[in-house]
Amino acid sequence: MIQYKKRYELKNRAKDTLEGKYGSAMSVLLLNFVLSWMVRFSIDIIGSNTANSVYVKTGSEAAVQVTVLLFDLLLLLATVILGVMGAGITLYFLKLACGQPLSVRVLFYGYKADSRKILTITAALVLCEAVCLSPFQYFAQNYLSSWDRKWLLISLLALAIGLCVYLPVYLGIALSFYLMFDFPQKSGKEVLHLCWRLMKGKRLRLFCLDLSFLPLMLLCILSFGIGFLWLQPYMQMTYTFFFLDMMNPRTAPQ
């Protein structure tokens, strides 16, 4: 009978593995965050200034909306390109779990090898979120600009529907980067399909693992976000052991 490790076992193993290595793990995740934030912030600022200039020159709301849409698409494209670093993060924590030599440069692995495959997987993850949660963001912006309760109710409804679609889909492909390294001969599309099949019956386990971090997330928020420097490596390491356990479960004695 196949037996998977319990949540506390995965977390304890993650803590043990990270002991004495938190600094390097934090540096990889922090570098990813800073680079991503700088690019997104730059696009937001340039987009906002461009939209203002278009309105001053044309006075047309339609032209402003077209400009905003173009920069939203540019931001989505940038998110996909930046998401390639997710493969490097995955590889880093896999190496850490297996006791292999580590380097911060592994963060940029996806830009040097398997780029097409990694872009396919990244695009699937990013588009899944964008399609499911963009309606909520749109209606929420309408509410914040008008403070009309109608938009608040619509945005909450859109959020509820979006999450009902997003969570099962995302959980079904969330470990695709891990599988990519286990099956290097498969294309990005094949890896996504394989991940979807392997996660059947296991999405609830991964979702419950996510929920188990909520108390720590609340504490991190109370620390003005500083605690996330320690929580993010801990979570990523736990997900790594979740994957390794899923691929190599124990056999319970008969």
Summarize the structure.
With 254 residues, the chain is mainly α.
How is this structure best described in words?
The protein contains eleven helices and two strands. With 254 residues, the protein is an all-alpha fold. The chain folds into two domains: 22-113, no CATH class; 114-200, no CATH class. The protein starts with a strand and ends with a strand.
Layout of secondary structure:
Layout: E1 2-3, H1 7-18, H2 22-58, H3 61-83, H4 85-97, H5 115-146, H6 149-173, H7 176-182, H8 188-198, H9 203-211, H10 214-222, H11 228-247, E2 250-251
Antiparallel strand pairs: 1-2
Helix pairs in contact: 1-11, 2-3, 2-4, 2-11, 3-5, 4-11, 5-6, 5-8, 6-9, 7-8
Helix content estimate: over 70%
Number of strands: 2
Series of secondary-structure elements, N-terminal to C-terminal: EHHHHHHHHHHHE
- Give the overall silhouette: globular
Structural class by secondary-structure content? mainly alpha
The average pLDDT value, as a whole number, equals 92
Number of helices: 11
User: What percent strand?
Assistant: under 5%
Strand order of the largest sheet: 1-2
Distance between the termini: 7 Å
Largest sheet: 2 strands, antiparallel
Q: How many domains make up the coordinates?
A: 2
Low-confidence stretches: none
Radius of gyration: 21 Å
Keywords:
single chain; 254 residues; mainly alpha; 2 domains; two-stranded antiparallel sheet; 11 helices; 2 strands; globular
